[in-house]
Design the sequence.
């Protein structure tokens, strides 16, 4: 049995002092693969360094410009993104999307950046990992303009109807720490009802810790807690969750 962490930020400074131990703990807890998603151009080189196909766990790179870091992005970053995706192996264009939850979002600038990156993903024939807060319907609207694109809605938190619309577009839905909190009744109901072949699991490390590690740094070694929650909510075995979500990640990211 093994688990695939479909979305992390292992490049973040929170891991600078003990990244090797973090990876060792993940391997010990049967995490076979980790996807590291980009946020800003400045951090891409570290992701390239961390990518490793022969390591345990295997670390896979994804590059992109995150909507919560609009102040750090420059116009030339789009050209730089194309360049790094051509020169380095990547499993996705990520993390991209729309965040209208932050105070005073520049919606137009975010949409422009998002669409430019969807277009790059299409050109490069790569899947996308999408961040959407208070923006699910607008994300859907733009994804419909790229019918060949596939991807994951990371830390999905939309309605059942929105879930169905993303699935109809060929997207997977990613679930992490938030589903482990009993108060997340709507999200947990969704996890119990969705087809298993549409689901991915993730930690979003160092963020979104599960209920056992509330307030602490999250790390890929905690991914089994997410899988156990999915299994409990669906009344199936953890092995079945591990198998299905790993198969889904392997298909989407061509691992
Ligand atoms: Zn993230």
Sequence:
């Amino acid at each position: 049995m093994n688990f695939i962490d479909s979305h992390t930020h292992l490049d973040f400074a929170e891991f600078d002092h003990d990244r090797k131990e973090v990876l060792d703990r993940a391997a010990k807890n049967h995490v076979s693969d980790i996807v590291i998603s980009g946020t800003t151009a400045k951090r891409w080189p570290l992701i390239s360094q961390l990518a490793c196909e022969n390591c345990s766990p295997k670390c896979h790179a994804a590059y992109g410009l995150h909507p919560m870091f609009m102040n750090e992005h420059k116009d030339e970053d789009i050209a730089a993104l194309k360049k790094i995706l051509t020169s380095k192996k990547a499993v996705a264009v990520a993390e991209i999307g729309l965040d209208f939850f932050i105070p005073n979002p520049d919606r137009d600038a975010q949409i422009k950046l998002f669409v430019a990156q969807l277009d790059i993903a299409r050109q490069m024939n790569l899947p996308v990992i999408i961040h959407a807060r208070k923006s699910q319907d607008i994300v859907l609207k733009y994804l419909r303009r790229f019918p060949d694109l596939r991807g994951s809605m990371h830390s999905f938190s939309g309605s059942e109807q929105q879930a169905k619309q993303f699935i109809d577009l060929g997207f997977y839905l990613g679930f992490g720490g938030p589903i482990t909190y009993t108060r997340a009744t709507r999200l947990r109901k969704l996890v119990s009802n969705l087809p298993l072949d549409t689901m991915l699991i993730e930690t979003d490390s160092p963020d979104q810790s599960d209920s056992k590690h509330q307030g602490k740094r999250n790390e890929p070694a905690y991914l089994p807690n997410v899988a156990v929650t999915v299994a409990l909510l669906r009344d199936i075995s953890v092995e079945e969750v591990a198998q299905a979500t790993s198969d889904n990640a392997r298909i989407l990211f061509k691992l």
Observations:
- The chain has a mean pLDDT of 97.
- The pocket of zinc ion is lined by residues 7, 9, 37, 95, 204 (CB under 6 Å).
- The first strand starts at residue 3 and ends at 8.
